[in-house]
Write a structure and sequence with these properties.
There is one protein chain. The chain is mainly alpha-helical and 145 residues long. The chain contains 5 helices and 2 strands, in the order αααββαα. It has a two-stranded antiparallel sheet with strand order 1-2. The protein is elongated, with a radius of gyration of 18 Å.
């Protein structure tokens, strides 16, 4: 499977200094992100080289940036692809202790849980926007010529 971004691409995308420490699992993050990008663009038509990388520079750059965006989202949300990427999306709404009830779920917590699930099982919103802007989505029109 093609990996669409390198450690240096991840570093540049996140504006990290050359000597800045990368996540220990950056290779796994980039591999998982590349797979997410590949799945999202699975019905798109584009030329590839012998390494399955897009030949057209603009497509290659969109794949690279979307891969970095998704890998960054995985990392920031603490989703580790090496651990299956599983997330618990349930948000606790209340708790009862000795007859006392506490309610502590918020809309923000529920929204965060939904985004976390989307990133863990699909593609990060920022990566999707990059691919959509480049015309590389599953629902857009096909262009030829």
């Amino acid at each position: 499977m093609a990996i669409y971004a390198t450690d240096d691409d991840y570093r540049a995308y996140n504006n990290l200094a050359a000597d800045a420490e990368l996540p220990d699992n950056v290779t796994s993050l980039l591999r998982a992100a590349s797979l997410a990008v590949r799945i999202y663009t699975s019905v798109c038509v584009y030329l590839v080289d012998d390494n399955d990388l897009p030949k057209e520079q603009s497509v290659r750059e969109a794949f690279r940036d979307a891969t970095c965006a998704h890998a960054t989202a995985l990392n920031k949300l603490g989703i580790d692809p090496d651990k299956g990427g599983a997330v618990d999306v349930s948000v606790k709404a209340s708790k009862s202790i000795s007859g006392a009830s506490f309610s502590y779920s918020t809309v923000e917590q529920e929204n965060a849980a939904q985004v976390r699930q989307q990133v863990a099982t699909g593609i990060a919103p920022s990566a999707r926007q990059i691919l959509d802007a480049a015309g590389l989505n599953s629902t857009g029109p096909w262009r030829a010529g």
